[in-house]
Structures are given as C-alpha cells and as structure tokens.
C-alpha cells in the first residue's frame, strides 16, 4: 500500500471510529451507571428488583438491535453506507441526551421507567445500524489480505467507548461531592453526549461513499431488495446462520462477560467500592485494547477461525477458576482481622446512617458496613446494611490481572470478526447480511447476559447454593461451548474466504 492510500484509509478509520466510539459511549453509559439509574427511575422499596429492572431495560436495548440491523442494513445496501450511519449517529445521540433529561420516579412515577425504556429501544435501533455500516465501510476501503488488520481498529471502539464512559463518570464524581453526583451529577455523562455527537457529525459529513459500493451502484449491481436476497436466498441464509451460531453468538457472550458481567460481579457480588471497580475495569481495558489490532492482524496471516474459537474455548475452561479467584479476594471469612472502628456520623441526610463499622484485615482489605434507615417509600423506618469492600496492594493488582485476562479473550473473539463477517457476503447485500447475525449474537445472546447471569446468581444465593457466585457463568459457558462446536465443524479457516455471489 502506497503512502497516499495509507493516509486515505487512516482518514476513513478515523472518521468511522470517532462516530462508532461515541455511539458505543452513548450505549454503554447506561450500563456503567446502572446501579445509580436503578435508584432514580425505578421504585425504591426493593433495591434488588430495581437493579434487575435496570438490567432488563439495559438488555432491551440489545434485544432490539437486530431490528435496527434489518432496517438500517436495508437502507445501507440501497442508498449507501455513509448516509445510513449518519442517521444512526444522530438518533443515538438524541436518545442518550434525552435519558439525561428524564425526571426521577419520585417526580413522575411510572412515566420515568417507561420513557427510559423507549429511549433505550431507540439507542438499540441506532446501534443496530451503526456497527455494520462502519465495519463494512472500512473493509471496503481496505486492501485484500489486510482486512483483519484495518477493521480491527473499528473493533477497538466498543471497548474505548466503555472506557471513556468510565473515565467521564470518574471525573464527574471527582469534581462533585457524593450528594451532588447522586442528586444531579449522574446526568452529566448523558448530557455531554450532545456535544460529542455534534463533533462526530461534522467529521462524518466530509466522508465519501465506499469505493466498492460506489462501483456497484455505478454498474447497477446494487440490490433492490436486500432483505429478500439476504434471507430469502437459501444459499446466503446458510452463511447468515453460520455467522450467527458459529461465531457471533459465542463472541457476544465472551464480550459481555468480560466487560459487563465482570463489572456487575465486582459491584454486586464482591461488594467492591463502585469507583474502585470502575478504575480496575478501566485499567484492564486500557491494557488489553491494543490486542484487538494484534489479533486482527494475526487473522490476516493464519486465518480468523481458530483465533476466534480459541478465545471462546479459553473462556469456557477458565471462567469458573477466574471468578472463584475474584470472589475470594473480597471474601473475609478466611482473612485475619487487625483493626475495627465504629463511627456515628452527624447531620441530616436523605438516608439516615445509624453507624459505620470499618474493619481492616491483614492483607490490606478494608470492609465498611453502614447501617442505614431509608426515609422514603415503604422502606421508611426499616434498617438495612450496606457493605463496601476496598482492595489494596497485591489483591488490587491481582484483580486487575484477572479482568485483563478476560479482556484478552474478548480481543481474540472480537478482533477478527468484522473481517470474517464482511468476507462472507457480497457487496450488494453485505450491510444487511452481516449486521443481522452480528446483532443477534451480540444483542440477544450477549445483551441478555448481564440480566440473566445476575438473576441466576441472585436466585442461587437466595437458595443457599454452594458457590452461588459462580451460577451466573453457566449462561456464557454453555453458549460459548455450542458456538465452539458449530464453528469448529463448519467454518472455513481461509484467511480471506472466497465471497460467494
């Protein structure tokens, strides 16, 4: 590739990645603030039910993504890649901004969760059209034999979007007091979206249509009915199903286990301090993100198949030992206590704190147990205890490493998959054909994971099941095993599969 072509494709990647990153930021800010959101938009009398309702609303955005893939994929194959993901960008940004404007449940009652759900569904529709367009656009600019490398840069945007959402939340918390953040500061990351989307819009407006699509359009070879040609043609449908059940399904559960279930596990099962959990995940994401490009590049050399399936197999074999190790880092049953102090805070608060007991352990773990009385709703006058764990020293570093391992699995399954999907389908129906299996795999199988796994864990804990904290892992393990078996048998390991016409 000559210098001019290299500069050209970097401009393409920059413009595509900027918009896709912001869309992922918009989408993930909801998940990153799920614990706070559960207290704002849902009834307060049952915190566990409120959190599960928030996760269900979060999952709803994923469930609707395939419909966005069908709607916007069709537009992308008829009118072009560029204009389609300009629309998805504006839709995503508008929905995210409006979530930050919705009054709380205490102010408008049932309308609060309903409005959040509607806007979350709009986010899902937008993201359903965004990823396929960006991946297709970059792939159609990339030279043959290098698609894995160049499309892997798009793959980094999802992780960077989550990383930036965590950074914005931590910075907002850093500038505001705890009461200010709880009162109105949590809205700031949503409202900032409008500025970010506008900047991305200005950048994307200058982009040109992809050369492969422009050539097909000039020659009259674009599809008039991409949905019928994608899913009504039995031969093409076979590739759609292979993409879903042999790759995207397993990739989706590995991705969401490492980046969302791990965060939920640290906060709700390990009871880690929220800021510390966000920081640990952020460090692991930052360290692991370059490996998207490494595995994308490697897939050009040795093939996509075994890199993706290898990530799934490693996840299946090691998830339980990894999460067992994570849980034991915060489990104080076997730890040696060295100090304990009791404090009685003064001053009126929305939630009245009766006492705070701080316990320090020999390995530098610190546990804070706050006894509180909620002064709102049905909880008025009923005491409850909130436990917060803070890790330090080698335990902190070990937890970063355990999350980092999961991020490596993510980069293995996700780095090569854009090139893999693009190469399965012809230009005229590529946007539609690749978008649907990707968003069913990630939106349905992956997006449901936080809610399903949290439910399984909560149910196991209520039933006093031994190692209840590992119950949520059965969902990603089973899905990844099934995908590994199908992919092993039916996927061709050519580095650039012959695209069927």
Automatic annotation (TrEMBL):
What superkingdom does the record give?
Bacteria
Gene3D superfamilies, alphabetically? Answer: MFS general substrate transporter like domains (1.20.1250.20)
Keyword presence, Transmembrane: yes
Q: What is its main location?
A: membrane
Report the GO terms under cellular component.
plasma membrane
**Pfam families given in the database record:** Sugar_tr
Signal sequence coordinates = none
Tell me the compartments it is located in. Answer: Cell membrane
**Where are the membrane-spanning stretches?**
12-37, 49-72, 84-105, 111-129, 150-172, 184-203, 239-259, 279-299, 396-424, 436-456, 468-491
Report the residue ranges that make up the Major facilitator superfamily (MFS) profile domain in this protein.
12-490
Tell me which UniProt keywords the record has, alphabetically. Answer: Cell membrane, Membrane, Transmembrane, Transmembrane helix, Transport
What topology does the record note for this protein and the membrane? Multi-pass membrane protein
Q: Which PANTHER family match?
A: MAJOR FACILITATOR SUPERFAMILY TRANSPORTER, SHIKIMATE TRANSPORTER
- Protein name as it appears in the record: MHS family MFS transporter
């Amino acid at each position: 590739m000559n210098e001019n072509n290299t500069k050209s494709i970097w401009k393409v990647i920059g413009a595509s990645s900027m918009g896709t990153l912001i869309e992922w930021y918009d989408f993930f800010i909801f998940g990153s603030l799920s614990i706070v959101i559960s207290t704002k938009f849902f009834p307060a009398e049952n915190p566990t039910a409120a959190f599960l309702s928030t996760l269900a609303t979060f999952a709803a955005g994923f469930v609707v993504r395939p419909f966005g893939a069908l709607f916007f994929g069709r537009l992308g194959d008829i009118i072009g890649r560029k204009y389609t993901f300009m629309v998805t960008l504006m839709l995503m940004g508008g929905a995210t901004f409006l979530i930050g404007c919705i009054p709380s449940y205490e102010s408008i009652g049932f309308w609060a969760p309903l409005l959040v759900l509607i806007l979350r569904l709009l986010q899902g529709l937008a993201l359903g059209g965004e990823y396929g367009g960006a991946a297709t656009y970059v792939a159609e600019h990339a030279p043959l034999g290098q698609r894995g490398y160049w499309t892997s840069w798009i793959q980094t945007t999802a992780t960077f979007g989550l990383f930036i959402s965590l950074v914005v939340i931590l910075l907002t918390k850093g500038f505001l007091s705890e009461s200010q953040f709880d009162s109105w500061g949590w809205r700031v990351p949503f409202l900032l979206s409008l500025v970010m989307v506008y900047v991305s819009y200005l950048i994307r407006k200058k982009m040109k249509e992809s050369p492969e699509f422009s050539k097909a359009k000039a020659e009259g070879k674009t599809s008039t009915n991409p949905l019928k040609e994608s899913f009504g043609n039995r031969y093409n449908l076979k590739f759609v199903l292979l993409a879903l059940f042999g790759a995207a399904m397993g990739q989706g559960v590995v991705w969401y286990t490492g980046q969302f279930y791990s965060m939920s596990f640290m906060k709700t099962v390990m009871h880690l301090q929220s800021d510390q959990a966000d920081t640990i995940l952020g460090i692991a994401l930052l360290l692991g993100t370059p490996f998207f490009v490494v595995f994308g590049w490697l897939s050009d050399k040795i093939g996509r198949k075994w890199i993706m399936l290898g990530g799934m197999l490693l996840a299946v074999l090691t998830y339980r030992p990894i999460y067992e190790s994570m849980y034991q880092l915060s489990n104080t049953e076997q730890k040696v206590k060295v100090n304990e102090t009791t404090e009685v805070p003064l001053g009126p608060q929305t939630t009245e704190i009766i006492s705070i007991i701080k316990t320090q352990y020999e390995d530098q773990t610190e546990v804070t147990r706050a006894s509180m009385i909620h002064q709102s709703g049905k909880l008025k006058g009923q005491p409850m205890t909130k436990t917060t764990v803070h890790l330090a020293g080698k335990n902190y570093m070990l937890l970063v490493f355990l999350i980092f391992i999961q991020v490596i699995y993510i980069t293995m399954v996700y780095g090569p998959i854009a090139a893999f999907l693009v190469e399965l389908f012809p230009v005229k129906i590529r946007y539609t054909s690749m978008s649907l299996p990707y968003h069913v795999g990630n939106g349905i199988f992956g997006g449901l994971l936080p809610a399903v796994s949290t439910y399984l864990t909560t149910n196991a804990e209520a039933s006093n099941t031994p190692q209840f904290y590992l119950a949520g892992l059965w969902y990603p393990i089973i899905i990844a095993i099934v995908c590994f078996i199908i992919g092993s048998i039916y996927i061709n390991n050519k580095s650039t599969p012959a695209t069927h016409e």
